[in-house]
Amino acid sequence: MIHCGKKHICAIVACILIFTSILICYWKDLRLPNRITTKIFPQTATASPTGHLCRGKIARNAITPLKDNKTFIISPYFDDREGKVTRVIGIVHHEDVKQLYCWFCCQPNGKIYVSNAEIDIHSDRFGFPYGAADIICLEPENCDPTHVSIHPFAHGNIDQLPRFEIKNRKAEPFSVDFTVCISAMFGNYNNVLQFIQSLEMYKILGAQKVVIYKNNCSHLMEKVLKFYIEEGTVEIIPWPINSHLKVSSKWHFMQDGTHIGYYGQITALNDCIYRNMQRSKFVVLNDADEIILPLKHPNWKTMMSSLQEQNPGTGIFLFENHIFPETISTHMFNISSWNTVPGVNILQHVHREPDRKDVFNPRKMIVDPQKVIQTSVHSVLHAYGDSVNVPMDVALIYHCRKPLQRDLPRESLVRDTVLWRYNSSLIMNVNKVLSQTIL
């Protein structure tokens, strides 16, 4: 009985040794560099093949669709205001996209980390099936990834995934005080004269950079944009959103089969804020036919300095929009050389519509981009710090466009010539641009 028991024990020991050897070999095999097994961060990371760090084709386009064609990536941005995360600005289908994963590749070891993404679709979707979204990726510890891939699955071949550069990785001093974000230029835009006047007013008031999300415009407008690009004022972000989605020129869903409103304006505005978060002290969010006009100050810099002093801790400043109908004009500043240029001459439109009872005037904004988390068109959805409505006697938005109150007689409009304070500089600057582009 004793001899037989010894045999039994020996057999058990032998089995344990064999099983342990198999586990050790399997574990070593997992560590070989030619095998990629991805695990959900933070549990596991695996090495990439030698010489192939951070593989995958680098995305170069402003809008990149994923293979599901329900998710569109604009750009990732490093955001350490609450934690170490990569915030990816994108567009997603609000129902069909349930899960996404962030694939990080860490230098210099080339280890791949995969983490669950939080999909935060902005609340201002206005009924459209697609909306602006933040795809939030928790970054791995001891890793400062330069690129990230977004994928519907936690497993796969990283070689097949587009790779996106993570912007805002390094903090830098502000290079400009004011950047104007204009989104989106579409509809074969050809309001050339008003565009030039607006750009020159922005510069007079203190803007050093104007970022335009351009879908399309006229050939003449292209010549003007080329001038401003070469001057260093304008940065163009190509915005071919209609190549990917059925776009609406309306802000609200009309049950007409379109996918997203106003050419993805909200997504572009959010991207513009993050794109300029570390290079501009303030970001101005308005359209090309709108100008935030100070009434008590000569320019934006002195106005914002005063507003910040009066409102400590505030990062969002909202200005009331007022319509100056392009249908009501004055004979002043009828400059003959401008008459051949397509578009509106804003100097001839100084009558604004009166306020209506119980009708809210929409607002546009000047923001401290580092205090913005998510923005809509007329307000910020999430931010650090407070928002303040700037009184109309401090500044207003000069908005020259088609009238909203169409039946008002001229005598019911309010004559407001604050724009004429700048007429001398504006005329000189506009003539300079026209002489070098069109005339």
Question: What can be said about this structure in brief?
Answer:
The protein is of the alpha+beta class.
Describe this entry's structure for a reader.
InterPro entries: Glyco_transf_92. Its EC number is 2.4.1.-. This is Glycosyltransferase family 92 protein. One of its GO terms (molecular function) is glycosyltransferase activity. It is found in: Membrane. The N and C termini lie far apart (about 115 Å). The radius of gyration is 28 Å and the shape is globular. It has 2 domains: about 65-165, Immunoglobulin-like (Sandwich); about 175-435, Spore Coat Polysaccharide Biosynthesis Protein SpsA, Chain A, CATH 3.90.550. The model is unreliable at about 1-5 and about 20-50 (pLDDT under 50). The protein is built from 6 helices and 22 strands. Strands 1, 2, 3, 4, 5, 6, 7, 8 and 9 form a 9-stranded antiparallel β-sheet that branches. It is of the alpha+beta class and about 450 residues long. Helix 2 (about 190-205) packs across helix 6 (about 425-435).
